[in-house]
Amino acid sequence: MERHITAPFCGQIAEELHSGDYVYITGTIYTARDAAHKRMSEALAEGKPLPFDVKNNLIYYMGPSPARENRPIGSAGPTTAGRMDKYTPALLGLGLKGMIGKGKRSQEVKREIAQNRAVYFAAVGGAGALLSKSIISSEVIAYEDLGTEAIRRLQVKDFPVIVVIDSDGNDLYETVMEAGGRLS
């Protein structure tokens, strides 16, 4: 099924999405990779606030290349989501509704996605230049010293993703493998 959603979004929207759905996201999403997740985890451990309210928001696991002339961002392809798995349960517990990346997630993260009624989307790896065309604006909002791994607020229009793990815990990667297929 093809869906168009606006981010941030509530749990009801997350529950309407199903593994295998093609989704086009318009609105505000945030970027954060390994180093930013580590800092957010440290902030939480110290009782400090996060640089943005994760509740009902989406985090895109991406570190862009420098912006080209007349563009808000350079190539903006996804990074491997599994590297963020140790940080994900805490963010889901704070109300994070979705993540965008590539690759499989741990069993613990899959359980937490279902328990917190969130979703995991995949963006097409290797298509960063194409994905960047859906990004209208990009602003560093935290951890500027991390360079490409700084947290950014992105405004996106019709950003294309696929629901891999839905709020019921259904995993597209497992479904495809059980059917004898392959999904990269």
If you had to describe this structure to a student in words, what would you say it looks like?
This protein is 24% helix and 27% strand. 39% of the residues are buried. The chain has 6 helices and 7 strands. The chain is α/β, with parallel strands linked by helices. Helix 4 (107-115) links the parallel strand 4 (98-101) and strand 5 (119-122). The mean pLDDT is 93. The protein has a 5-stranded mixed β-barrel with strand order 2-3-4-5-7.
Concise structural overview:
This protein has 184 residues and is an alpha/beta fold. It has helices at 11-16, 34-45, 88-93, 107-115, 128-132, 172-178, and strands spanning 2-7, 22-31, 58-60, 98-101, 119-122, 135-142, 151-165.
Q: Rg from C-alpha positions?
A: 15 Å
Shape: globular
Quote the beta fraction.
Answer: 25-35%
Instruction: Please give the oligomerization state of what you see.
Output: single chain
Widest sheet, order of strands: 2-3-4-5-7
Uncertain residue ranges: none
Mean pLDDT: 93
Class by alpha and beta content: alpha/beta
Number of helices: 6
DSSP E strands, number? 7
What is the N-to-C order of secondary-structure elements (H for helix, E for strand)?
EHEHEHEHEHEEH
Helical content class: 10-25%
C-alpha termini separation: 20 Å
Main β sheet profile: 5 strands, mixed, barrel
